[in-house]
Amino acid sequence: MTEQHPIPVVVNGAAGKMGREVIKAIAQAPDLQLVGAVDRNPEILGKDIGEIAGCGELEVPVVNDLQSTLVLATQEKQQGVMVDFTHPDSVYENVRSAIAYGIRPVVGTTGLSAEQIQDLAAFADKASTGCLIIPNFSIGMVLLQQAAIQASRYFDHVEIIELHHNQKADAPSGTAIQTAQLLAEAGKTFNPALVKETEKIPGARGSLADEGIRIHSIRLPGLIAHQEVIFGALGQVYTLRHDTSDRSCYMPGVLLSIRKVTQLKSLVYGLEKILN
After folding, report:
1. Which of 98, 96, 116, 95 is nearest to 107 (CA)?
2. CA dihedral 219, 85, 59, 81 (to 10 degrees)
3. Contacts of residue 195, Cβ cutoff 8 Å, sequence gap at least 6
4. C-alpha span between 195 and 197 (Å, rounded)
5. Tens digit of each residue's pLDDT (9 = 90 or more) over 145-165
6. Given 5, 47, 168, 265, which residue is catalytic?
7. Is 219 exposed, middle or buried, given 0-12, 13-18 or 19+ CB atoms closer than 10 A?
8. Other C-beta atoms within 10 Å of 274: how many?
9. Rounded to an integer, what is the distance from CA 245 to the centroid of its chain?
10. Which candidate, 11, 8, 257, places its Cα nearest to that of 138?
11. pTM, 2 dp
């Protein structure tokens, strides 16, 4: 019987809100091994990431050099995984670097453009390296999206409202964009115009996504991540809503993605693609 070694994992953005949850989840998973914690916050460099995350000492110091940490991960007995929860401005280069080192990225950072995703997909294919880009790790959100796809067969009018904390850098959210893309795959154009609309203030009607679907973004303290998909028809409104009250709800999806990406040879977009 072949000895099974734990999957080595590097967490990039380790001291952020999501990063700390990921650290705690990995520390509790016997088949995963945290080998690196990367963060740009100068106040915590050199400190133990387990102490910062609140799960006790893990003997993994916080560093700010992703490249050297990726090199460290390549020296493990099993090919490593990088979990990225950083910033839209840096995520593209982070993912390219991981693939270049043969480290499989699991990407929770949103804000990648369609062109960047296509480029990363080509790079991952060429390197035969698995990569997962997951706009939302919540199982509940996947179920909402599947219900929305079913509803889109019967409703011609739909709009999306996404609500997040006011520290989120990109808008609309990657989840809302993905939801609009999934609805657009139905092959129909939504929201046929009944009147000529005039925005008295630019942006009042939200952003226009694929196939005529409007997305509205709200940013307020006190929120975490929430989304509504609202369908309308003559005499009725059908609303689907998903709310998160704690970031721990994402961890089953994150852990599943870490395990699944080691089996892939190309880029896959969306949690629904890896659910059994």
Report:
1. 95
2. 160
3. none
4. 6
5. 999 999 999 999 999 999 999
6. 168
7. middle
8. 17
9. 17
10. 257
11. 0.85
pLDDT at 1: 39
Q: Is 164 a catalytic residue?
A: yes
97, 109, 88: which is closest to 17 by C-alpha?
109
Of 164, 216, 242, 260, which residue is the catalytic one?
164
Closest C-alpha among 51, 55, 58, 48 to residue 24:
55
User: Of 108 and 78, which is predicted with more confidence?
Assistant: 108
Indicate the burial class of 196 (C-beta count within 10 angstroms; 0-12, 13-18, 19 or more): exposed
Q: Token pair of 149, please?
A: 């796809």
What is the number of other CB atoms lying within 10 angstroms of the CB of residue 3? Answer: 5
**SS3 category, 159:** strand
Task: Report the pLDDT value the prediction gives residue 75, as an integer from 0 to 100.
Answer: 79
Q: Are 21 and 251 in contact (CB under 8 A)?
A: yes
Is pLDDT at 238 greater than 90 in this prediction? yes
Helix (H, G, I), strand (E, B) or coil at 55: coil
Tokens, residue 40: 């740009």
3-class SS string, 101-122? CCCEEEECCCCCCHHHHHHHHH
Determine whether 5 is an active site residue: no
